[in-house]
Design goal:
This protein is an alpha/beta fold. The protein is about 40% helix and about 15% strand. The protein has a nine-stranded mixed β-sheet, sandwiched between helices. A seven-stranded parallel β-sheet has the order 4-3-2-5-6-7-9, with helices on both faces. The chain is elongated and about 80 Å long. The two termini are about 35 Å apart.
Length: about 525
C-alpha cells in the first residue's frame, strides 16, 4: 500500500528528523535518490547534458546538489535560476564545474531554448511542497519551455499544489517525478496527477503519522479479493440483488450484469422494469443465462424485495430517474443491507436525502454512491443545497476536500469516478485509484463498475473495500483492452486480471469447491 500525507504532516516529520541529524544530512538522502534515478534513466552520466531549474528553496537545493554530483561525474550541468538560489547547493555545483545562468528574466528566449534543446535531461527544482497559488511569470516562462519528455520533477512538478493537486495557470509537465519521504497528495489528485509521469518514492527516513490518503497496489487488492474455499457454495459466496435496465436502456443492465458476474458473488438476482416489450429482462437472459431475472412493474418495491434473499443491493444502471425509481430506492433504504447507488438512482436518492438528511446515518448498513463529476454536482445540489457552479470550482481547487465534505454531510461512502477515482468514507478515510486508462471515458463502463462493486459487496467486502477493489480491477481491465475501448470489452477481461493478481508470488491460487 502506498501512502500520501499533507504538507503539514511532512513538515512536522522533517522538523523532527532535522533536529536529530547533522546539517544537510536529510537533503543529501534526497539527493542520493535523485541522482540514482537520473543515472538509471540516462544509462550514462559522463558527457550528458543536464539543465537544472533552480528555485531559491530546499527543492532548488536538492536539484543543485544533484547537479553537482552529476557534474563531478563528467556531465555538463547548466543551472537556470529565476532569482536567488540555495547557497550551499550553488557553491557545490560551481565547485564541481557546473554553470549558473540567471536571473532567468535576463536571458533571451533563444538562449533558453538552446539550453533546453541540447539537454538530455531537465531537473525541475523551481518550487517544492510549499508552492501555492500558481507560478510567477519568471517561473512560468521556464515551465513552458521545459520539454515534458525529458523533464524530471524534483519532489513535485512546479505549479502543482502538493496538497490538493490544483494547477493554476502554467505548471511543469514531467515525464517522471522523484518524490521524497512520502507521496504528496497532489501527485495523485487531478489535475496535478496529469503533470507527474510515473512517480518514484525515495525513502529519507521520515517517521510519519497515519496517512491522509492511500492507494492500493496489486498485492493489496489480491489479498482482498474474495476467494472461495472448498466449502463454498453459490449462496455462501454471496447473493447480489441488481436493479437495472428498462425498456429505454436495456443495454445498461447487460453491462452491469457482466461486471457483477465477475465480482465474486455466487448468485445474481436481476430486477428489471417490465414494459411493453420487457426488453431489459430479455436482453439479460440472452446475454447472461446465469442471472436469475425478475421483472417488476415500475416502482413496485414489494415485488423488488420479494425477488429473493440477497446480501447486498446495487441499483441504478439503465433506470430512468423519477418517482418510480425513488420508490425503489426508498424500499432498499428500508432494508438492513448495504446498497450501491449509481446512474438513474442517484437523483432519486438525493431527493430522499433532501427530505430526510439523516436517512443514511439511521441505517445499520452502508450506502455507496458512484457518481461522475456532473452527477456529483447534481446530487449535492439536491441533497445538500450546494451551488453546483461552486461545487465545480471546489472540485478543481481541492477535489478530495470537496468529496470529504459531501461524504460527511450525507453519511454515504462516495466513489467519485474520474481519471483518478476517489473513494471516501463519511469519517474521512480516503483512497485513490491510480491505474486505468483514459479510454474508460466512454458510455457504459460505469455500469460494469457498478455491477462489479455490488458483487464484491455481496461477497463480503466493506462498502469502501468493494469500491477500492472494484475500481482497481476495472482499471486493470481497461489497461489490457484493445483501443478504442468499448464497455462491453471489460467483463471478459476481468477474469484474467483476477487470475494474474491471485497467481502473483505469495498469494497462491484458490482452492477447490463444489457447484450449486
Amino acid at each position: 500500500m502506498r501512502n500520501a500525507h499533507t504538507v503539514t504532516q511532512i513538515r512536522d516529520a522533517e522538523a523532527a528528523q532535522l533536529a536529530s541529524l547533522p546539517p544537510g544530512a536529510l537533503m543529501q538522502r534526497a539527493v542520493y535518490g535523485l541522482v540514482a534515478h537520473v543515472t538509471r534513466r540516462l544509462g550514462r552520466v559522463y558527457g550528458a547534458r543536464i539543465v537544472v531549474l533552480a528555485g531559491g528553496g530546499d527543492n532548488g537545493g536538492d536539484a543543485l546538489w544533484a547537479g553537482a554530483r552529476l557534474a563531478a561525474r563528467g556531465a555538463r550541468v547548466d543551472a537556470i535560476a529565476p532569482g536567488r538560489t540555495h547557497p550551499e547547493g550553488t557553491a557545490a555545483l560551481l565547485a564541481a564545474g557546473g554553470r549558473l545562468h540567471g536571473p532567468a528574466l535576463a536571458l533571451d528566449d533563444e538562449t533558453l531554448r538552446g539550453l533546453f534543446v541540447q539537454a538530455d535531461l531537465v531537473l525541475d527544482g523551481l518550487l517544492g511542497i510549499g508552492g501555492r497559488g500558481g507560478l510567477r511569470a519568471d517561473h512560468a516562462r521556464l515551465a513552458a519551455l521545459a520539454p515534458p519528455d525529458r523533464t524530471v520533477a524534483v519532489d513535485v512538478p512546479s505549479g502543482v499544489d502538493a496538497d490538493t493537486g490544483a494547477v493554476i495557470g502554467a505548471a511543469v509537465r514531467a515525464s517522471a517525478t522523484v518524490t521524497f519521504g512520502t507521496h504528496k497528495r497532489g501527485l495523485w489528485l487531478t489535475p496535478g496527477a496529469a503533470h507527474t509521469g510515473p512517480v518514484e518514492l525515495v525513502d529519507i527516513g521520515l517517521e510519519l503519522p497515519e496517512p491522509d490518503l492511500r492507494a492500493l497496489d496489486d498485492a493489496d487488492v489480491a489479498a482482498m479479493i474474495p476467494v472461495p474455499g472448498p466449502e463454498s457454495s453459490k449462496y455462501r459466496r454471496g447473493v447480489l440483488g441488481l436493479v437495472a435496465g428498462s425498456d429505454a436502456y436495456p443495454g445498461a443492465a447487460v453491462l452491469a450484469v457482466g461486471g457483477a458476474l465477475r465480482g465474486g458473488a455466487g448468485y445474481l438476482r436481476v430486477v428489471t422494469e417490465t414494459g411493453i416489450a420487457s426488453r431489459a429482462g430479455d436482453f439479460v437472459r440472452r446475454a447472461h443465462p446465469e442471472a436469475v431475472v425478475t421483472a417488476i412493474r415500475a416502482g413496485d418495491r414489494v415485488a423488488m424485495l420479494a425477488a429473493g434473499r440477497v446480501q447486498a443491493w446495487a441499483i441504478g444502471p439503465g433506470l430512468d430517474p423519477g418517482p418510480a425509481v425513488r420508490e425503489l430506492v426508498a424500499g432498499l433504504l428500508g432494508t438492513d443491507l448495504p446498497v450501491v447507488v449509481d446512474a438513474g438512482a442517484l437523483d432519486p436518492l438525493a431527493e430522499l436525502l433532501a427530505a430526510d438528511p439523516a436517512a443514511l446515518r439511521a441505517r445499520d448498513a452502508t450506502v455507496l454512491i458512484t457518481p461522475h463529476e456532473g452527477e456529483f454536482g447534481r446530487f449535492t445540489a439536491t441533497a445538500l443545497g450546494w451551488d453546483p457552479d461552486r461545487t465545480t470550482v471546489d472540485l478543481a481547487a481541492d477535489r478530495l476536500a470537496a468529496v470529504r465534505r459531501a461524504a460527511a454531510a450525507t453519511g454515504a461512502v462516495i466513489l467519485l469516478k474520474g481519471t483518478r477515482t476517489l473513494i471516501v468514507e463519511p469519517a474521512g478515510a480516503a483512497w485513490v485509484n491510480t491505474n486505468g486508462s483514459g479510454w474508460l471515458g466512454t458510455a457504459g463502463t460505469g455500469d460494469v463498475l457498478t455491477g462489479l462493486i455490488g458483487s464484491l459487496l455481496a461477497a463480503g467486502l466493506s462498502a469502501a473495500g468493494a469500491g477500492v477493489v472494484g475500481a482497481h480491477l476495472h482499471g486493470r481491465a481497461a489497461e489490457r483492452a484493445a483501443v478504442p475501448l468499448a464497455a462491453g470489452d471489460l467483463p471478459d477481461l476481468l477474469p484474467q486480471v483476477v487470475t494474474d493478481l491471485l497467481a502473483a508470488p505469495g498469494r497462491g491460487r484458490p482452492g477447490g469447491g463444489h457447484g450449486g
